[in-house]
Amino acid sequence: MLLIEDDEKLARQVLACLEEGGFSTTWVSNGRDALAENPRSFSLLILDLMLPGAHGLDVLKEVRRESEVPVLVLSARNDTSDKVRALELGADDYLTKPFWPEELLARVHARLRRPVLQRSGLVEAGELAIDLAGRRALVRGQDVDLTRVEFDLLGALARRPGAAITRAWLVENVLDPERDGNERTLDVHVSRLRKKLGPCSEYVETVWGVGYRLHVPEAA
Question: From CA 10, how far away is CA 96, in angstroms rounded?
Answer without folding.
Answer: 13
